[in-house]
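ENTRY TYPE: paired fold submission
RECORD: A
CONTENT: sequence, then C-alpha cells
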Amino acid sequence: MSRPTWPNTVAAMPLHAVVVAVIVAPWVSLPAKLPVATLALLAVPVVVPVVASPVLTAAHRSRLARVGVVIPPSRDERVWRSMARLRQLGYHVLVGPLLLLALLAVIAGWLLVVVGGTSLLWMWVRPAGGLPHSVWEACAWTVAAVVGGALLWWATPLLPVVDARCAAVLLGPGDGERLSRRVDDLTESRAGVVEAADAERRRLERDLHDGVQQRLVSLAVNLGVARATLADLPEPARAVLDDAHDQAKLAIAELGHLVRGLHPPVLEDRGLDAALSGLAGTAAIPVDLTVRLPYRPDPAVEAVAYFVVSEALTNVIKHAHATRAGVVVDGGPETIVVTVEDDGVGGADPSGGTGLAGLARRVASVDGDLRVTSPPGGPTTVRAELPCVR
C-alpha cells in the first residue's frame, strides 16, 4: 500500500467543508422567531448527510484509491439501518469536520512559524511602529517559531495517515466482517491446496500405473519366458534368473499397493462404492459394507472418505485382532458420515502417534471431523463426518 499524501488529504477538505456547511448553515440562518416553515430547516443537518452518505463514501474511496489505499465495500452497507451505514455517517459528520479543523490548524501553525521566524527581518524593514517592539521580543518569537516548526514538522505527516486510517476503519467493513472474509479466503486457499495435492496424487498414480508398472510387467514376462526357454543354463545362472523373476513380481505387487495408496484408479473411474467394495473384498477379515450415497461427492472429499476406510481397516487387521468389521457410508444433504466398526480388543488412541493421527489431519484438511471410540476390550468405532462439497 502506498503512503497517503498531503495533496490527497487536502482534496478531501472540500467534501468535509460541504458537510460542515450543511450542518451549520441552517442554524445560522434561523430567525429569532421560528415560523412553522422555518422549522423544516432543522431537518436538513440530519436528512442531507444521511441521504448523501453513499455518494460521499464513494468519493472518499475513489480519492484514497489513487494513493493505493483500497477500501472494500461492506456487505451490509446497502441496508440503511446497518452498522456499516452508521460508521460511514460518523466519518462524514464527526471525523471529517475534525480533520478539516486539524488541517486549518496546521496551516495556521505554519503561517505563525513563518511570521515568528522572520521577526528580526520585520524589525529591520519597519524599525518603528511595528511588532515586535524590541530585539529581545523578536528573539523570543524566533525561538518559539523554531520550536513550533519542529513540532509541526513531526506532526504534519501524521494528518494524511490519520485520514487514511479513519477512512479505512469507518468506511470499510468492520472487524467481524474482515475476520469473516479472512476466514473465507483461508478456507478457499486451503481447498485449493487440497485439490492441487489430490490432482498431483492422481498424476503420480497415472505415471506409475501407465509407465513404471507396465515396464516391470514387461520385464517379469521376459524373465519368465527366459526361464522357461533357456533350459540348458548353468545352475548358478538359473538361480539368478529365478530370483530376478521373483523380485520383479514382488516389485509389481508393491508398486500396485503404492498406486492404490496414492489414488486407486477405480475410485476415479467408478466412484466410492466400487472402490470400497474392492477394498472390502481384499481385506484379510470379513467386512460388511453398506454405501448409501444419493450423489457423488467432490473428488477431494471422496478421496478422504476412501482413505478413512482404508486406514481404519489396515489398523483393524494389524492391531485390533478382530474377526469382523463393518463399514457404513451415509450421504446426507450436508455431510457424509463414514463409520468403521470392528469387534477387536479396542484401546486405539489417536494421540499416540499412530495412523489415526495422520487420518485425523487428512479429515481436517476438508473441514471434517474424526471421532474414535475405542474402550479397552472393544469394540472400536471410527466415525468421520465430511462436508458435502459438490
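RECORD: B
CONTENT: sequence, then C-alpha cells
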Amino acid sequence: MTKDVIALTAKMPDPWAVLAGLLSGGRDKLVGTRGEGAVIQLCDPEGRPLVSVEAPLLVSVEGEAERLLGATAPPVPYWWTEARATTGVAEAEQLAGTFATRLASLLGGSAWPPDAAGSLAVVKTDGVSVAPEPAAAQPAIDVLTERVAVVIQDRPVVAMTAWLSDAFRAAAEAGLGLQVVSPAGTTLSPAVRDALGGWPSRWIVQDERDGYYDGLTGAVLRWQDGMFAPVASPDATEDDPRTPVAATFQEVRDTGERQLALTFRMVHPADDRLVLGGGLETVWRELTGAPPAGWGTSEPATLPWSPRRLTDVAHERAPEPTWFVVVGNRDRPALATVRITRTEAGVEEHVTLAFGYGSSEQPPLDALPAAAEALATRHHLQSMLVQLRKARRDVAVPPRFEGPGVPLAFVLGAEEVRAMPGDRARRTPLAEQPVTLGPRTRPALYYPLPGDPSDLSGWQDFEQLMRHLKGA
C-alpha cells in the first residue's frame, strides 16, 4: 500500500534541510522535479520516482493536523511537508520515513504517522526499481487502467490534499473515473465526497468480511474488467441487479450526534468591487457567533479566514472555476466547500456547509430565518435548502449508513420569487405558508417544512413544494 509520510515542523524546510532529507537514499540517488518544481522526486536508476515530496505548506489554521491526522502539531504557524512513497516498494516507504524524520530532527517537530519515523541513516536501495510509466507518471495515482485511476490512501481521514486534487484533475483530463481505496476505520472528508461524482468514481473500503465495499452506498465490490465494480447476487436479473450490501456498512450507530446542513447558491452581478465569501461568513456568524477559522484550495486549510484573499484567488483564476474548502474551529466543527464560476448571469457561488453537534448540543434552528434573510437581502441569494441529519459531530463521513437528512426549510431568493407568475410563490399547498424576508416590494420567501425532524416526512413536503413552484 502507498504510504504518505508527513513532517510537521516549527521552522520552514530551507533548501539545506530538504537536501539533507533527500540524501536519505544516498548520494547516488537521482533527483527529479514535476509540476514546475513544486514536486521533488527521489528516483531509481531509470529516473522513475521512489518518493515524491510536495512543496511545504505553511499552516496558519489551528486544528487541521488534529482533524486530518489525529496528530499534535507545533503551534501555528507551522510547516506541513508531505512525502509519498511509491506503491509496492518497501525501500521507498523507508526513504519517505527517513526523509520526514530528518526534517523533524533538523527543524523541530514530528513525523506522521509515528510508526513511519525511521532512523537518520541512509536507506539501502541498491538495485531497487519501480513500475514503468504511465502508473508512476502521476505520483498521486497508484494503478491506472483504461477505465479508472486508483489512489490508495492509508490515512485516518481521506482529505482533498494537493495530491488527491491532482489525481482528480488528471483522471478528469484523461476521461477516467477516480477510485479511492482506504483501509477499514478510515473516514472521508466531505470535500472528497462532494468531488467523487458518479460512476465509476468510488470510495472503496477494505473489509475483513466482504473484501471491499463502496463506503458511500455499501455495495460489495470486486476488481473486475479493470476497475472496482459491484458484485451481482446469484439471483440477480438485468432489471434487478440485487447488489449485496456489506454487513459493516449496515451497522448503524446512533450516537445522538447531528449535523445541520445547508446548501445555497448566490448569483452576484459581475463587478470589480465584488467580494466573495461574504454570504458564507454571514451564515457562519448567525449560526455560531464567529466567522470561519480558515480556508484553502486543498486540505489542510492553511490560511486564516479572509474573504478579500479568497476573492483575489478566484479573480486570478477566472474565467476558470475555483474551488475552496472552509473550516471551523475546535469548539464548533464545521466544513464548507465553495465553488465559484463565471456565467452569463454573473458570478455564482455554490456553497455546501455542515455544522456538527454532540448529543447534548442543540442546533440553533431559531437562527435560520435571520441567516436566510441576511443572505437574501445582502448577498443575492438564489435558493437554499436546510436539513438536519444524524451524522458525526466532527463532520467526517464514515463508511457506514448515515441516512438522508430531513428538510427543515427551503428559501427562494427575491429574483426567483419575482420571476414566478401570479402569486404561485406565496400560496403553496403546505399547511404553513412562507415567511416574507426583506422588503415587501421585492421579497424573498422562507418556507418552513412541517415534517417531523425525527423521521423522513419532511421530504414529502419538500417534493410537494418543488412540484408546486415548478407549476407541475
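NOTES ON RECORD B: Residues 90-107 form the longest helix (18 residues). The radius of gyration is 24 Å.
STATUS: closed
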